[in-house]
Amino acid sequence: MRGHQANPWELAPWQEHTIADRFDVIFLRSRRGWFDVRSLELSSRRTWTRRDLLPPGRLGDLLVRVPGDRYLRLAPALADADIVHSQELGYWYSMQAAKLKRRLGFRLVLTVWETIPMLDAYRNVRTRPYRAATLKQTDLFLAATERARTALLLEGATGGRIRVCAPGVADPRSSSAVAVAPGAPDPIILSPGRLVWEKGHQDVVRALALLRRGLLSSAPASAARASIRIVGTGPERQRLESYARELGVGDAVEFLGFVAHDEMLRLYRDAACVVLASLPTWSWEEQFGMVIAEAIAAGVPVAASTSGAIPEVAGDRARYFAPGDWPSLAQILSELLSQRAAPGPGPRHSLTDTAECLAAAYEELLSAA
Length: 369
Hints:
The strands form three sheets. The chain has a six-stranded parallel sheet with strand order 10-9-8-11-12-13, with helices on both faces. It has two domains: about 10-170 and about 350-369, Glycogen Phosphorylase B (Rossmann fold); about 170-335, Rossmann fold (3-Layer(aba) Sandwich), CATH 3.40.50.2000. It starts with 7 loop residues before the first helix and ends with a helix. With about 375 residues, it is of the alpha/beta class. α5 (about 90-105) runs parallel beside α6 (about 130-135) and α8 (about 200-210) packs across α13 (about 325-335). About 35% of the residues lie in helices and about 15% in strands.
């Protein structure tokens, strides 16, 4: 169960033989889903939600906030389930699963990405009862990182109900989408992520301005020809475009919007480096950073802030700077652009490892039932 958030990159491990040969996996597919899931080789069930009954676009998104979103007639969709796997303590669909658990007799698994223990004090009034229901009814929590596990302990989950199960990514080196090809003549910095303040694209643009305008004395000549490709959608696009022009690098910043997963592999191939410049807010920090895991798998040099779980995910396969420290980012980019690094040794978090972790969790629950 993922509400409107079912997507091919998160659900990819369930397609691995470790899972597919031992379990019948079905995901619930809403009519207003945010992502294209047609590439998934998993069975799905069409489900209605309140959001599906409202107009498309921003108007419908605003209207559904009044009653809150819900699956409609969810019980029949879960009636034959031995295990229901949802995510996060404060999501409406996790709450629904928790409330149906005893009646339908399934076991409840919850993936948790959240790395800040919000408890009730830092949650809104509506999601506080969601947290209470999921904490009580979840049989096994699968924390995406050790940081998420630690946050769960402070939320009130007992250690015996928590396993760390990191999401995995495919090894793209065997894919024709990333076959070896000459790199772009001038270095390209890839900055993927939603176009919101906390993803830090503005800091990447600032660092580029230092490089392009020759304000960093140690920068190689190639840095003056560097450009940025920003991948993602969101409300900050217009501001970022204006900002790049004001800094004199508007012609060196390309906004690609939404990019399909297969095409992202090509963008990694062409990039001199990938940057994730996430900034923490009072209620969010980087919870994993799938693009970092993908870039590492593709063998691309990585520069990343130390927000949230990023250092845990990237380990020694990234160069780090403090969140918001764009001069240090510029220095790191200068060093990464001085020569193209040899491809790395492949993914730190593989789909196979994730599938094995999931299968072990399911077997544990079923054997205890």
